[in-house]
Design a protein that fits this description.
Helix content is about 60%, strand content about 10%. With about 475 residues, the protein is α+β, with helices and mostly antiparallel strands. It has a domain of about 280 residues: Outer membrane efflux proteins (OEP). The relative contact order is 0.17. The C terminus is likely disordered.
Amino acid sequence: MTRLQPLLATAALLVLGACAVGPNYRAPASLLTGAYHSPAPASDSAKADLTAWWQGFGDPELTRIVERAAAQNLDVAQAAARVRQSRAALSAAGAAFAPSLAANGAVADGRQSLLSPEGEIGRHLPGFQRSYDDQQAGVAASWEIDLFGGLRRAHDAARAEDAGAGLQLAAVRASIEAEAADAYLQARGYQARLAVARSQEKVEEDLLKLVKERLSQGVAAEREAHQTEAALEGVRAAIPPLAAGLEAELNRLDVLMGAQPGTYREELVADTALPQPPSLSQAVQPGDLMRRRPDVLAAEQRLIAANARIGEAISDYYPKVSLGGLFGAESLEAGKLFTGPAQAQQLSAGFRWRIFDFGRVDAEVAGARGREAEALAAYRATALRAAEEVETSLSGLQQDRLRTQALSREVDQLTLARRQAQQAYEGGVASLLEVRDADRDLLTASDQLVQSKVAAARAAVASFRALGGGWRQDGLGNPGAEGR
């Protein structure tokens, strides 16, 4: 122990005086400032909490689907597995600071060759034994002193990569939540469009019945019956594509929820009204995306890790210092293995230094700097795409709401015009052509109104996602996400 003390004191001084080579991380200047070019449209609806924005739609089925998708989706499961991998890598990087200790033991039953150099000499010596048993037991320790901070930089990089993996998990989950809501809204939209088509089908059937009655009375031409029946079949022909679209969205929802297509279909069989989206918060500004969007934050963590990897590479320019120790015993007689004469011990200190390696360290440092430049560009691109998504979704939401209001007024007028056209036709003061035109215009406008409402609701979902909704920064969790 007396001889070990100087080594330990030297190690302590080296650790305390150690520095971390390489550049320290400095956050780049924010690319996003000011206000959005397309502000959030005004609405009488209550403002939604960004953390769980889907609850603001007031639709229990939507809430159940979004939270089930967040808990069961397989893309989320893959991202969660990557978090476990990064956590293990971080633990390994932390363990590199500590000494390693290994126990070993061996038992050998040997027979010396008499024709070997040792055998030629030994067989002429008194007491030489050709056969022997050898027992060994010991403990070996080694410790690399992080004199120039290479291990510290590697640990910093692993910590940033672990944080980035957690944020990427949050980004994937937020994306899946938005996609599940989008699929649900489209499914409800197809159901509403089917209801419009089937309602129009009933109107056309009633009109055909009226035309046939007038034909039997001799006050209508046969061609009018054929034209009306053709219009009826045209409405019926529009139904199968809508039904196919509904089936596709239901299948998409099941896969998003990590289930075989058809698993949850019965939950959405009953038609319900399209949910009304909540209003958006005016508080989130472009600069907030740098702190609010998990994908932007994950990109910054990758930049931090790349910066730390530069220091890890630079540390190879300097010597690596290590301490070692061995305490054990070896004996040719098993009963004497743990006696004083059998004991053996060794203390060592050493270093290795890549003095000349034909530019390998230079290449490694250059590669690390290149990866940092790539990570910086990726971080900036991610931030700009985030702002683009917000601007596009807010603009789409505003325009879809204006279009919905105009289409709603158009449908009201066309409904009145259609009723008046049929009354005029029954009174003999209008032709069947006017009624059919009114039917066609009303069907087209009603279908467009439903599509516009769906588009506005989907734009609201896209806006919530673009603004960084769907996750909490305190633990990256979400409601209903079991077993993550």
